[in-house]
Description:
It is found in: Nucleus, Nucleolus. Belongs to the RNA 3'-terminal cyclase family. Type 2 subfamily. Residues 199-298 form the RNA 3'-terminal phosphate cyclase insert domain. With 381 residues, the chain is of the alpha+beta class. The protein folds into four domains: 1-95, UDP-n-acetylglucosamine1-carboxyvinyl-transferase, Chain (Alpha-beta prism); 97-189, UDP-n-acetylglucosamine1-carboxyvinyl-transferase, Chain; 203-297, RNA 3'-terminal phosphate cyclase, insert domain (Dihydrodipicolinate Reductase, domain 2, 2-Layer Sandwich), CATH 3.30.360.20; 304-369, Ribosomal Protein S8, Chain: A, domain 1 (2-Layer Sandwich). It is built from nine helices and 20 strands. The strands form five sheets. The chain has a six-stranded mixed β-sheet with strand order 1-2-3-7-5-6, with helices on one face. A hairpin with an 8-residue loop joins strand 11 (166-171) and strand 12. The protein is globular.
Amino acid sequence: MAAGSVIQYSGHKCFRHRLVLSILSGKPVKIHGIRSDDKNPGLRDFEVSLLRLLEKITNGTVIEISVTGAYVSQGTATGLLCTKAGTAILLKPGIIAGGPLVHDCPLSRSVGYFLEPVIMLAPFAKRPIQLTLRGITTDDYDLSADLIRTVTLPHLQLFGISDGLELRIKKRGAPPGGGGEVQFLCPIVKQVKTLNFVESGKIKRIRGISHAVRVNPQFSNRMIEAARSILNRYIPDIYLHSDVYKGEESGKSPGYALSLLAESTTSVLFCSEATSKPGVAPEDIALQATRALLSEISKGGCVDQKHQSLVILLMVLGSEDVGRCRMSQPTPQTIQFLRDIRDYFGTYFKISPADPTKPDSSDLLYSCYGTGYVNANRDLA
């Protein structure tokens, strides 16, 4: 909802996406009523940390967090001055500066929580971003560093963002102690390409990374064997890599996880993952990840549900032409994201059945007219 020149929302849901849309569109946003009915109202530590990271990446951004007092910052990387978490924030966006940055993430969320919004902003920065994040690299809530490297970044290549795009996993960090470190490198572009991705193809290969830190390395092999016991029934081209880190590179806590990725003949990527839990055998973790991958494949489309928002945003920012993409049913988060895009950019999507002749197909065709977004920050460099 827009009130004057400031776009207003209530509640903490879709927090990251609304901040990203504000910075890209240049329109201020006010989010109030953040967990106002909760026993512990206001922003959580990871949300405050995200605001601090956006401060570092941008230049001239003004963020106000209000409850009884207010914290105001103008694009500095200083620490937060207020002790109470705010139930309302106001963000007045500056320009995306980029450059070399280091950020320590709180242990309540993994680095994936912070990387997802940065990936949406990084191609439109003034200088190429070289971001080092420290904290937990894999957890149950957000995309792991492995999936971002193998699945999220290839989605950017669909829009012509490829040279120099990289995510390096320097150290693993399992919850609760963390201790991981990743480095994200992203080039800048003047404009992203229009997407036309409507052929889903057939699954041709499955790849996976099974990693274990500060536990018996055999756990990694046990997960691979369990995953193969199911996947071998469907396709022969399967390669699951065992990635065991030792010493300082293994972080501060024991843990293990399995990340899976399926690729089709038209370069469609589906992914899933499962992480270790107390008292759960490695075989059960592997079966959980494998079934999740098969479930994701069964939903169809050219983009899996974890990456719908990223692809939709880049379609909106594309050149002034009609972009089309075949996807599965939208998640509730995607539906809200489409509404938020309408608020910021005035762009509407046409969503129609991808195969009208096949009533049993649930695939949908998403199409929109690109805004012709040009990276003005780059021209200032």
